[in-house]
What does this fold into?
Amino acid sequence: MLAAVVAILLVGFPAVGFLAGRWAALALPLAGWPLFYAGLNPGWWLDGTGDGWERAAVGLTFVGVTTTAVAVAARRALRA
It folds into this structure.
């Protein structure tokens, strides 16, 4: 279940960024991943975290921001 949620967020944030085409969409992964792990760590949803969750949170935030930025840039390039 955790892998499915992570996959949905990894695809969802850039998809929203592409559809919106606005740089403000970068706020989604910047806030979304930390909030996801803020609830996952104490076990509020899913099964909680394991060892190294901090690195995973930082890595997924970086990947989310990067892919969302690329999606926004692609949309803006297509519009031009």
In short: Helices lie at 2-20, 27-40, 53-79. The first helix runs from residue 2 to 20. The chain has one domain: 18-79.
